[in-house]
Structures are given as structure tokens and as C-alpha cells.
Amino acid sequence: MEKLIFLAFFDVLLASLLMFQPTICSSNFTNQDALLHVKLVIEVDPMNTIKGGNWTVEANFCEWIGVVCSNHRQRVTALDLSHMGLQGRLSPFLGNLSFLASLDLRNNSFYGTIPIEISCLRRLKELILEFNQFEGSIPPILAQYQNLEVMSLAMNRLTGGIPGEFGAFPKLQQLDLSSNDLRGRIPSSLGNISTLQVIVLVNATLTGSIPSALFNRSLTWVNLTDNYLFGSLPSDLCYHWPNIQALSLRHNQFSGLLPKTLTQCKELIILWLSFNCFQGSIPQDIGSFQKLQKLYIACNNLTGMIPRTIGNMSSLHKLDIGSNYIEGEIPSEIGNLFNLQRLSLRDSLLTGLYLANNGFGGNIPQYLSNFSNLIIFDADDNQLSGPIPMSLGNLKKLIAFSVPSNQLTGDTYGSKLGFLSALSNCQSLKTLFLAENPLRGSIPESIKNLPESIKNFSNSLQILSAPNCQIRGQIPNQMGFLKSLTFLQLSDNDLDGNIPSSIGQLESLQRLCLGELLLHQNRLSGSIPNCIESLSSLQKFFISSNNMTSAIPISLWSLQDLIFVNLSLNSFNGGLPIEIGKMRALENIDLSWNQLTSAITSSILELESLTSLNLSRNSFQGPIPKSIGNLKGLDFLDLSYNDLSGMIPESMEGLTHLQNLNLSFNKLSGEIPNGGPFRNFSALSFIGNEALCGNANFQVPRCRVDGKKSSSNKQLHLLYIMVPIVSATLLGSVICLLRKHGKISKIDPVSVENPPRIDHPMISYRELCLATNNFAESNLLGVGISSSIYKGTLTNETNVAIKVLNLHIESALKFFDKECEVFRKIRHRNLVKVISSCTNAV
């Protein structure tokens, strides 16, 4: 009887357990139950699509969000939970949806392993689990899907390689396992899938070569980008892949020659072989790619020239052959590529025509004007020669034209730069870079006589840069029509004549570069026009190395936004007006190598933003203004080769940022200051001033000391000696008294229960500043290797000596530790008393 009871109980238990296991039987209830288990393991549902939606028993599960059922049997045939941001594990109960044909869970955060129970979905045609966090190995049992056509497990954390069993898929058309750390080789068994059309294995850490079996005639799309694959491409590649439309092998280690038969892939639309080690030349019959729209072969070791047949690729939209060893002329046949949107022969793939930083020679081809949609033409740093084509004026949409560092010249049949008139038709042109080309011409009369042509630029051209172009003649007065011009650079040319007064009409100009950096080494003469005051936006004004004369106009110093001024290497005369003090934004002034006279106006010392001042090689007279110490941000000061006299102001010791000082070859006298930045200067800063005296390191005589000053020095030296002695005596006396009265006893060890009592007074850094007048030099007693000692009086009228460590010196703390160790061990009646310590490092 007991046995029967036991058996009955076991049967009930077994039945109960089976109720909670996924089963292969399917019914409406089974489908609903499976979906509820899917809902149960979802942990995060940010949009409340499943947890807070209509996934309830009160509603028909066929009407639940993401669920599609068959019309006849009301069984789940598709489950689409993509792009919902769901997080959780994947329920094994999904295996009970036996009629499921499509499972799409892409772009969620499902994690854990892929449950093997989903291999029971015999009718499944689409399995899309991409963009999740699945981990572990890919279950080989998934190969049991006899009807599967699309499988995407991309963008997960799967490992362990591609199962060789996948070669048994009888109907698979698309396979995407990208962005998983699969490692290993591509299984040759994948070549057994006769229906396979698309294989994408991007960034899967795969190694080895492409297995020969994979060259399956059914393939139309092969993407093996970003792996460690190597080897060469077979010469009969197109025979095995006659229907290939897209082939991407970029960012691998493929080598060898590009197959000459590559152009036999007649259906090819995209060919991406960049960032490999391919060698040899571009196939001469590359023009046979009639359907090819994108060709990327950059960053290889290709050599030779661009085949002229490239002009036959009538469907080509994008061409990138940069970062190779291509040389020779740009074939004019490129002009036949009417659909070309991007041509790149360098690293950057920017919009427009980029030919920069190559070795291209020959003329700029006339066909360039056929690119009616061209926005940017960039061919700097090549070997282009000949004239700039007049036909470029047809590029109505051109925004930037850049050809610096070539061998381009002016017009063939004249000395005028006629292309400037042609480019004036490009009404969208904003930047024009012509630097370092031997143009050897003058600005054409057409621009001077027909101002309407240059007026086309007036609403667009912002930057005109043509330094070192051998441009001669005068700057045309019509330049003033360029109302939008913000940058004008004509340095290092052969320009002569005066600066036209129309320059004052360039109200947007921020840089007028007629000097040192940008319009220097010309032969401009005359004076700076007074109309320059109209350039209210001007920030930088350079006109160095010219033949400018007369006084600097006061109108220049009315420009409130001016930051840099360089008028050096001219013949300006007169003095500096007091108006210069109004330019509060000014940071850099260079007036060197002129004929300026009179005293240095003290108003220049009101320029609080000034960091660099160069007045050298002039004839300034009188003393250096004492208020020069107000220029707290100054780091460069050159007043050499003038007729300055008097003493060097002590206020200059407060110029803490000053790094470069040159006062040489003047008539200065008196003592050279030795505080502040003067500690870092050498004799070269003061050479040629015979009346200077000071420290020996300046290589000048020692200053003569009168009796009063000598007596004062003796008293100061005596103070250095006596203060420590007296303080030590007082400390010793206190120690003796304490010992005599038994106040000093053996120190008890410190414990948590009895912490040491702090008896010394707490003195703040602020109190020390007050006691020493902000550590003034008048309170300085002495300077050591790593510290300075100041005298001071605390608020309780106690006279103290304050030692300040220089923590910028690496050994400062070590020296202090050694001193403390010595003081701890020495017992002497003359030891000074240590009152307290503090820090301002907050």
C-alpha cells in the first residue's frame, strides 16, 4: 500500500514539472503562455511597450504589440520587438512558438547566451538578433533551421568562431555575424551554401585567407572589412563571382597585385579595397566598369599613373585613390566623369575636388570647368604649372579655390593676371589661396577699369591670400569694393606705390597683412592713409619691410579692436601720440627699425593687455617711464638701440611674467634691479650702457655706496646675526626654566584615547601677510637655497622671523625636514623657539 502511494505521488510530481518546461507541442494557449514567459523575463521596458502595454490575458495575444498571427489557425508567425530598448534574457519558451517564421529582436539589450530551445523553430525564415548583448558561442544546433533565409547576429558579444555546421543551411541567403569577437578562420563549409547571396563578417577578428570554397557563384555581396585576413585575390575571381555587386575588403592585410581580370566583374557597383597592401598599378582597362559607382583603393602601395580609361566610368560617383604612390599628370579624361561628386587623391575625403599633397604635374586641365557643381578645388603642394585657366570662371558654385605651393604662372600672352577677372564671375567664391606661385604679373587693368567685374566678389569673397607670388604694380583702388573681405594677404611681392585710400572701405577687414607675416618685403611707399580709421573690425595690421614714410597717423590708434600691430622695418618718423593708450585690446606692438623719436609716452603703459613691446632700433629719448611696472602681463620688452637715459625703474621688478628683456645700447645709468624677473636675465640684456652698475653676474661695475647707505647695510647685516641669537637665547632660557620647575616630563605615547593636545597658536596665512606687509622686500631678512626669511609683527605685537619655503625647488622640503631633525636632537639654551606653521596651499 505504501508503494502505491509513493508511485502516485511521483506521477503527480512529474506532471507538475512537465507543466513548467517548454514543450514542442503548440496550441493557442501554448503560444500565449510562451509570450507571457517572454514578458516575464524582461527586466527593463523603457517605453512600457510590453510591461505596461496590452500584453495581458484580457486581450487576444494576436493583437499584442509586435505579434503577428496566421489568419487560419491564429498561431504566432512573427514576433517583432525591435528598437524597443528592452533588457533581459531571452526566454527558452520561445521554442514553443512552432509556427514562428520571423523573429526580430534587433536594437535592444538582451543578454546572456542564445537559448538552444529556439532551434526548435522549424518554420523560421528570419532570425535577427543584431545590436544586443548576447554572449557565449553561437549554438551550432541553429544549423537545423531547414527554412532559414536570413540570419543576423551582428553587434553582440559572441565568441568561439563561426560553426562549421552552418554549411548545412539549405536555403540561407543572407548571413551577418559582424562586430563579434569570433576569431579563427572563415569555415570553408560556408561555400556549400549554394543559395548564399550576402555574407557580412565585418570586424569579427577573423584571420587567415579567404577559403577557395567561398568563391560561390551565387554571392552578390561580400563584406569582410576590418579583420586580419591576408593573401592575394585569385586571378579568376570574377569567374567564381560573376554576379558580385559589392566587394569590401578594406582594413585587412591583403597583398599582391590587383587582378587584371577584375574589370570582368561587370555587375560590380561598389569596390572597396582601401587600407591593405596591394601593389602594382591600377588596371589599364579600369574604364570597363560601366556600373561601378564607388571605387575606393586608397592607402595601399599602388604605383604608376592614373589610366586615361578612367574617363569611361560613366556611372562613377566617388573615387578615392589617395595615399598611394600615384604620380604623373591628372588625365584630362576625368573631365568626362559627369556624375563624379567626390575625387580624393589624399587622406581626407572632403566635398569637392581634392588633389593636394601629391606629385601631380602639368597644367590645370581645362575640363575642370565641366564640373558645374564643384564647390571646392584644392590642389596645394603639387607640381602644377602653366597658367590658371580662364574657364574656371564658369564654376558658378565654387566657394574655395586653393592652389598654393605650385609652379603656376600668369597669362601666357601677357603680363596681366587675367584669371582674377575670370574668377570674379564665381559669385559664391569666399576663399582664394594663391600663395607661393610664380605668377609674375600685375593685377590686370580690366579690374581697374571695369570695377563691375570685381563687384561680383563684393558679397562673397572673405579671404584673399597671395603672398610670394611675384605680383608687381600697384594695389588697385577697386579693392575697396570687396565689402566682405576679412583677410587680405599680399606679402612678399613686388608691389609699389601707395596704399589706396579705398582700403578704408573694407569695413569687415580683420587682418590687413601688408607686412612681416603677410604683405612684407614689397616696395610700398608713402604714408598710412587716414581712412584706416574706418576699419573698425581690424584686429591685425602688418606692413613691415616696406618703404613707408612720414608719421604714423593718429587715426591708426583709434582702432579699438586692434590686437597686433607690426610697422617694423620702414622709415616712419615722429613720436608716439598719447592716443595709443586708448587701444585697450592691444597685445603686441612692433615698431622696431624705424626713425621714431621723442620720449616714450607714458600712455603706452596704460595698455593692460600688452604682452609684447618692441621699440628697438629707433631714436627714442628720455627715461623709461616708471609706470612701466603697470604692464603686468608683459613677457617681451625690447628697447635696445635707442637714446634712452636715466635709471632702470625699480617698478620693473614687478613684471613677474617678463621672460625676454633687451635694454642694450642706450644711455642708461644707475643700479640694475636684481629682484623679480631680473634674477633670470644675463649681461646681454644691458650691454652697451656704460653707466650701469650692479651685481657681478650682469658684468657691470659694482655700485658705489655712500656712508649713510653703508651704515644702513651694516645695521641690516647686524640684524641678520643678532635676531637668531637673541631668539635662541630666549628659547634656551625658557627651556631651562621649564626643566628647573619640573615642567618637562617624559612624553607619553600617543593613543586614540589620549590624543596629543595642540598648545601652539594657530596663525593664519592672512595674518602672516599682514605681519610682513604682503612679504615685502623691506621685511626680507635673508634668502637661502630653498627658502626666504622675513621679519614681521603679529597682531599680538610679537616680533617673529618667518621662514617661507620655495616649493618650486624640488629639494625644499628635504632641506626643511633635515633642519627639523637637527632641531629635534639638539638641546641648547640659544635655540630659537618655533611658534607655529601654516600653508596657503588651499
Q: Can you characterise this structure?
A:
There is one protein chain. The protein is an alpha/beta fold and 842 residues long. Strand 52 (780-783) and strand 53 (787-793) form a beta hairpin. Residues 1-26, 347-351, 446-451, 514-518, 707-730 and 742-758 have low confidence and may be disordered. It has 5 domains: 21-176, Ribonuclease Inhibitor (Leucine-rich repeat, LRR (right-handed beta-alpha superhelix), Alpha-Beta Horseshoe); 232-348, Ribonuclease Inhibitor (Leucine-rich repeat, LRR (right-handed beta-alpha superhelix)); 350-471, Leucine-rich repeat, LRR (right-handed beta-alpha superhelix) (Alpha-Beta Horseshoe); 573-698, Ribonuclease Inhibitor (Leucine-rich repeat, LRR (right-handed beta-alpha superhelix), Alpha-Beta Horseshoe), CATH 3.80.10; 707-741 and 759-825, Phosphorylase Kinase, domain 1, CATH 3.30.200. The strands form 8 sheets. It has a 26-stranded mixed sheet, with no helix packed on it. Strands 13-15-17-19-21-23 form a 6-stranded parallel sheet, with no helix packed on it. It contains 9 helices and 54 strands. It starts with a helix and ends in a 17-residue tail after the last helix. It is 12% helix and 22% strand.
Shape: extended
Structural class: alpha/beta
> How many DSSP E strands?
54
Number of domains: 5
CATH overall fold name of the largest domain: Leucine-rich repeat, LRR (right-handed beta-alpha superhelix)
- Cα-atom Rg, whole angstroms? 43 Å
Q: Give the distance, in angstroms, between the N- and C-terminal Cα atoms.
A: 88 Å
CATH class of the largest domain: Alpha Beta
Q: Give the helix level as a range of percent.
A: 10-25%
Strand content: 15-25%
Unreliable parts:
1-26, 347-351, 446-451, 514-518, 707-730, 742-758
Mean pLDDT: 81
Number of helices: 9
Q: State the fourth-level CATH superfamily of the largest domain.
A: Ribonuclease Inhibitor
GO molecular function: ATP binding; protein kinase activity
Pfam families: LRR_1, LRR_8, PK_Tyr_Ser-Thr
Subcellular location: Membrane
Organism: Corymbia citriodora subsp. variegata
